[in-house]
Amino acid sequence: MPKEQFAIGKRAVVCQDTEMKGEIDIGSGTVLHPQCKILAESGPIIIGSNNIIEENVTIINKQPTPLIIGDENVFEVGCYVEGSKIGNKNVIEAKARILGNTSLGDNCVIGAVCSTKRDEVIPNNTVIYGDHHNRRTQTTCASQQSSLHARHLDYLREVLPKFNHVRIGGANTATESAASNHPRKVKEKEKDSSH
């Protein structure tokens, strides 16, 4: 059984009810919504910077080697990831599945309810879509996507602490200030100062 060890990078926001087991490193600026499962059952899970991991996502490493996730990825509601490597700027849509020891390149999209085959290597810019898990190569503007992704992260860092108990990486971040000024926190401070 792997040791329980969590490292949370600066400006990362992790909702308290996220289930984490094993050796996990969460990069700076990454946001984990409520009800996520990050399970390093065998080897560690290393999550890069500025990823968005939405509700009910399961990321699991059943291999002894690290599962490495790059930067600026979006894991949408209810998706399941069991791969060996996830590149940068990918979108794993709702209820999509990355199976086995699959390696995903950069700037890929796994469509809603689609899945990979087990143990495959998916090249950069691949889109998997449709009932038959069709594939094509995309040619979108990455700079526009990066701008939207950054605004999405800023919004989540502001809103999630208002409605959830969170663990916040780093010290003296804007998110910590927002969380400490949450009405529930302000009331707790007032109680403490009245004693």
Automatic annotation (TrEMBL):
GO cellular component: dynactin complex
Gene source species: Ambispora leptoticha
Protein purpose: Part of the dynactin complex that activates the molecular motor dynein for ultra-processive transport along microtubules.
Location of this chain's protein in the cell: Cytoplasm, Cytoskeleton
A matching Pfam family: Hexapep
One GO biological process term: mitotic spindle organization
Family: Belongs to the dynactin subunits 5/6 family. Dynactin subunit 6 subfamily.
Source superkingdom: Eukaryota
Chain intervals for the UniProt region annotation (Disordered): 171-195
Protein name (record): Dynactin subunit 6
